[in-house]
Amino acid sequence: MFYKNPNIRMMLGWCYRAHVIGLFAILKSIYANKKLTGKYFSMKVFLYPGMNVVMDIDNNCNVNIKGRLIVKPWMGRNGNLFIKVSKNATFDLLSDLYCGPNVHLYVNENAKLHIAGSDDRISTITADSKILVYSEINIGLGTIIAWDCCITDSDWHKINGKVGVKSVTIGDHVWLANGVTVLKGANISDDSIIASKSVVNKPINNPYSLSAGIPAVIVKNAITWQY
After folding, report:
1. Does residue 42 have a cis peptide bond before it, meaning omega lies within 30 degrees of 0?
2. Is the pTM of this model over 0.85?
3. Which end of the chain has the smaller Cβ count within 10 Å, N or C?
């Protein structure tokens, strides 16, 4: 039956709890879904009451949404999710992604942001974090990006007449603690933790490791973490 669909149950729950506010959230979700995917249905974008999405989606970009983009408050705080996908850029969202307030996803012209799919693990970007893609950034399954993080694959300005660019890959089940910065050329292995305020500017090739510092280096191996 239709009421067994988790997406429909979510929206009905909003209406039950908040009536007009919940209905307004549904209408905003439908509008955002059309803006991002080009379709009103099936639903891929869900805004919790009090949340908004500000989008600039070029007509000539490629948006591939297989999972759900769920925009929700964080610690009682509402706000906006900002998404810009430029001309000839690609945005792949192949698994569910939770985003909190003041998260920025920026994909430059001809660039690619790929968030992996085909698994039931959900990725999360908590709040106040930025992913700035000049060329290519890949994010694995079940990754947590805590608040106030920054991930970019470029310097964005010319140094000695050239913009430095090198792709970034963040593996499956990686935890970036609050305030982490991931810079061009970073490659973070599966099941890793990057400690608070660390700066990753080179590959971290050991899975199940904890890295910390500026620049980040492995400080402990054979660690595991859970949600």
Report:
1. yes
2. yes
3. N
